[in-house]
Amino acid sequence: MASRAPAEYPHATWRLIVDGEASGATNMAVDEALLTAVVDGTSMPTLRFYAWSPPCLSLGRGQSLADVDLAACRAASVDVVRRPTGGRSILHTDELTYSVALLQTDPRATGGIVECYRRLSEGLLAGLHRLGVDARQAVGHEHGDGEPTAVCFETPSHYEITVAGRKLVGSAQSRMRGGVLQHGTVPLSGDLGRVVDCLAFPDAERQVQRRRLHQRAVTMEEATGMVYRFEQVAQALAEGFAEALNLTLVPGELSPQERALSVEIRERVYAAPDWTARL
After folding, report:
1. What is d(CA 78, CA 219) in angstroms, rounded to the nearest whole number?
2. Phi, psi (5° rounding) for residue 2?
3. Are 87 and 160 in contact (CB under 8 A)?
4. Coil, strand, or helix at residue 181?
5. What is the pLDDT of residues 173-218, one digit of tens each?
């Protein structure tokens, strides 16, 4: 399917937020607060970049907590949070995470989830190409052998970003009250196999899963041989979104209302044991 030309999207103005590090519960609550504000009409569509501290294992909304080795996470000082979006486990460390909150009526989000992935991935691709990364959109599952595991980065889905067939960007999406939240992670460096140590694999299976992951996923550093700074990647991706989706990005921050809502959502949902252990 051919990419849609930027001129075919009507020009739009979005807010750009570049955050620092925060806990997993805080990051997920902020993303939900942004989506709520966009749906309520009190905020413009928003592109946000952020990082995580301490390292955090995030589960997909419908994933079982039984997939997690909680004792191993505690020993490694790794938080555990359940995302509002689908997908499987991601260990968030040494990375940049992006999120987009917009209305389903936006021409960049109309249609089904897969088509929306394709459109938003055009922004990611344009940004990565600015950094010299030979990235492409995956079409379908590029690895069809074996059953899926608890690891998100094992297999690229439709229109996720790959380099030489290995998954570079993992994304997930949720729709609520006419709004779309999509977020995803760009691993900058480090050992992607670390996520296996946080999951409840039998000991004999861990090395197998680690090898599979290294064969099927890649970091920015491994893909290019270069070390990228968070700020450098955020700037390039912002420029890529603006170019590919015909946007003007206005730097901003959370409004006082969004900040208060994110605190409330964090305590009620993402920091609550009942939410994390719901499955």
Report:
1. 20
2. -70, 145
3. no
4. strand
5. 999 999 999 999 999 999 999 999 999 999 889 999 999 999 999 9
pTM above 0.70, yes or no: yes
Please name the amino acid found at residue 260: A
Structure tokens at 72: 């191993």
**Residue positions annotated with a catalytic role:** 152
Architecture per CATH, 11-276: 2-Layer Sandwich (3.30)
Concatenating the DSSP letter of every residue in the chain gives: -PPPPGGGSPPEEEEEEEEEEE-HHHHHHHHHHHHHHHHHTSS--EEEEEEESS-EEEE-TT--GGGB-HHHHHHTT-EEEE-SS-S-BEEE-SEEEEEEEEETTSTTT-S-HHHHHHHHHHHHHHHHHHTT--EEE--S-S--SS---SBGGGS--TT-EEETTEEEEEEEEEEETTEEEEEEEEE-SS-GGGGGGGB---HHHHHHHHHHHHHHB--HHHHHS----HHHHHHHHHHHHHHHHTEEEEE----HHHHHHHHHHIIIIIT-HHHHT--
For 233-263, the pLDDT digits (tens) are 999 999 999 999 999 999 999 999 999 999 9
As a whole number of angstroms, the distance between CA 188 and CA 196 comes to 18
Q: Are 61 and 205 in contact (CB under 8 A)?
A: no
